[in-house]
Amino acid sequence: MAGMSLGMPSTDTFDHVRGADGEHVGYIHCTEDGGFVPFDLLQRRRGEPMELDKAEALLDALGLSMLAEAWWLDTGDGSRVKVLIQEVHRDRLTVARALDDLSGPVAQAADLRATITVELPTDRLHETA
Fold first, then answer.
1. How many other C-beta atoms lie within 10 A of the C-beta of residue 33?
2. Mean pLDDT, the chain, whole residue set
3. Pair 57, 79 in one domain
4. Is residue 46 assigned to a domain?
5. How far apart are CA 54 and CA 123, in angstroms?
6. pLDDT for 39-54, tens place per residue?
7. What is the CATH number of the domain that holds 122?
């Protein structure tokens, strides 16, 4: 998301669990002036300070949708590969190459079980759309 900061403040931040199904869908940071800032599971800021119920509703609506999307991952050598998020933890996530990104000679050499661990927060992931 363009313009969204990476990482969330470590103090005064709590997990947000969606009430309908008990899924952990993000984090909410309490500001000194009484606002609540929503952060998604990738620790990306998803809005300006707002009322608690609005921050919760935003994260509830976002849900786990990012886990169903393909992402571009910077490899560190100037290139990107298309990946899918496999697991998300508070401090890291695990990704694997997307099957539709496997073509030509690379496909024959690719280990479909291979995963990459990415520390959070990260600027290495980019939305494909």
1. 6
2. 86
3. no
4. yes
5. 26
6. 999 999 999 999 999 9
7. 2.30.30
Same domain, yes or no: 74 and 103: yes
**Is residue 6 over pLDDT 70?**
no
Alpha helices by DSSP H, the chain: 52-62, 104-109
Distance of CA 8 to the CA centre of its chain: 12
Query: pLDDT tens-digit profile of 89-106?
Result: 989 999 998 877 555 444
Residue range of the domain that includes 116: 69-127
| C-alpha to C-alpha distance for 124 and 116, rounded to whole angstroms | 12
Q: How far apart are CA 111 and CA 126, in angstroms?
A: 23
Q: What is the value of pTM for the model shown?
A: 0.80
Helices and strands, counts by H and E, the chain: 2, 8
